[in-house]
Specification:
Elements lengths: L1 H22 L4 E9 L9 E6 L5 E5 L5 E7 L2 E8 L5 E9 L5 E2 L2 E3 L7 E5 L13 E5 L1 H6 L3 E2 L2 E2 L11 E3 L7 E3 L8 E4 L2 E2 L20 E9 L12 E6 L7 E9 L8 H6 L5 E15 L4 E10 L2 E4 L1
Parallel strand pairs: 1-7, 1-8, 6-9, 15-18
Antiparallel strand pairs: 1-4, 2-3, 2-5, 5-6, 10-17, 11-12, 13-14, 15-16, 17-18, 19-20, 20-21, 20-22
């Protein structure tokens, strides 16, 4: 009996530790202050944070100074609702929360009946004042879907790093990319908090696990001033976050096909009477969904498939 209890406690400890590790570097924070029209702090107001994709919500109350904080928030679009007796209900929708970049949503409550509602769209501050000073940026889902990242190595979202501030392309060592003078192999790659670095060779713009862009929600790069949850390497910190799904069933498919039958032959081949060229095909797909209710919650995990094929004729 004692052995079973020990094993159960050990298992729970491991699961708890794993959950904490998973949360490091893959979540964010939503914070703000609630004030009345005169600028006075509103204490005890009920603040609800709702994920607009899954309808899951968190609730807290403002402190004596009118401050509220939600920690360990998954990236996505959120709605903030504030209620307090004697004031109109405040609703702010379509607030984008990015990984490792706290969102500040300050609220001004108007005096009135709580049944009345004041709706605001995207009231999160555009100038970030609640972060510790990380130097870097975030490549969001829209950029991953819109920017051209098809190359000879398939669809590699890491190619977008070449156009970020501080990244220098064309070095004659490793992967050829440096950031702020750091070594080429001093990059640190994580996927949902898990190490995906190449331990044998490595190099910027390279990881043995290349995420399918269709399954990536966003990725963040930090080039200097790393905070405590980031580390391991002195170069850029690259954090991938996969899509978690919404209450709607979604999917996508992509194929890039290139054949010499549709491309002009090279000049040297024409001089030598050769029919040279190469054909390549890259296919990928992803699907995800989350369906939740009060009595049960079921998940369909995201999957993807990518297969580049090259043939020289």
């Amino acid at each position: 009996m004692g052995k079973k209890l020990f094993l159960m406690a050990l298992s729970l400890s491991i699961l708890s530790f794993g959950a904490n590790v998973f949360g490091q570097g893959t979540t964010s924070r939503v914070t703000g202050t609630v004030e009345d029209n005169s600028g006075g702090a509103v204490a005890g107001a009920t603040v609800t944070l709702t994920n607009q994709g899954t309808n899951s919500s968190l609730t807290t109350q403002t402190s004596g100074s009118g401050v509220y904080v939600f920690d360990l928030v998954q990236p996505g679009d959120y709605r903030v609702t504030v209620e307090k007796a004697g004031f109109k209900k405040f609703v702010s929708s379509n607030n984008q929360v990015l990984v490792n970049q706290p969102a500040t949503i300050n609220v001004k409550l108007e005096i009135g009946d709580v049944s009345a509602t004041v709706n605001v769209e995207g009231s999160a501050e555009l100038v970030q004042t609640s972060t510790s000073g990380n130097v870097g940026g975030t490549v969001d889902q829209r950029s991953l879907e819109s920017l051209p990242i098809v190359g000879l190595r398939g669809r590699n979202p890491l190619d977008l790093l070449n156009f970020q501030p501080g990244f220098v392309v064309g070095a004659n060592t490793g992967g050829g990319n440096h950031v702020h003078g750091s070594r080429d192999r001093s990059f640190n790659f994580t996927l949902d908090g898990i190490d995906i670095n190449e331990s044998s060779a490595g190099g910027s713009n390279f990881t043995p696990l290349r995420p399918n862009p269709d399954s990536v929600q966003e990725f963040q790069f930090v080039s200097s001033n790393f905070t405590a949850e980031l580390g391991r390497s002195t170069g850029a910190q690259v954090t991938f976050v996969t899509r978690s799904g919404t209450n709607r069933f979604k999917g996508s498919a992509f194929e890039y096909y290139q054949t010499p039958d549709l491309n002009a032959n090279e000049y040297e081949n024409n001089l030598n009477g050769l029919n040279g060229g190469s054909s390549s095909s890259t296919f990928s797909a992803a699907v995800s969904a989350v369906r939740s209710s009060r009595t049960r919650c079921s998940f369909l995990q995201t999957f993807n498939f990518s297969e580049p094929r090259n043939h020289v004729s």
